[in-house]
Amino acid sequence: MHAQGREPVGSVLSLTPSLQSHMTNGPLNKTAPAKPPLFAGIDVGVEGLVLVIRKNGKPFDPQKFANTPSDRSRLVKKLAKLPGIVVCLEATGVYHFDLSIALHDAGVPLMVVNPKASHNFAKVLIPKGHK
Questions:
Q1: 37-125 falls under which CATH superfamily?
Q2: CA 105, CA 91: separation in Å to the nearest integer?
Q3: Distance between CA atoms of residues 90 and 113, nearest Å
Q4: Model-level pTM?
Q5: Which of 14, 16, 96, 128 is 20–30 Å from 111 (CA)?
Q6: What are phi and psi of 44, to 5 degrees?
């Protein structure tokens, strides 16, 4: 157990059963989720957070929050109310840390990705010459 009282997560697939079905070729327990999953991406900056939620592959309009304790709390409460949501954000220095801990403590499934990995993934998806 870590000093802050949290158990370390062994792998992304150990987070929740709902993540197992979204990140493998199917659910490990052979039951499909009851409804389509929601995905959220959060762009973390020094002063602001930009949230985009996708449902059934269609994004909702971006929502902006200040990167302050009160707005982070508001964002976490909003996401915690959405059953089945999975959140992804980049590790941005120390600016993502408080939000990541708050989402984890609220029980929201969370993936924190290396910025280099997400950059390289985007390069694969975007054809050359496309701007």
A1: ATPase, nucleotide binding domain (3.30.420.40)
A2: 18
A3: 5
A4: 0.68
A5: 128
A6: -100, 125
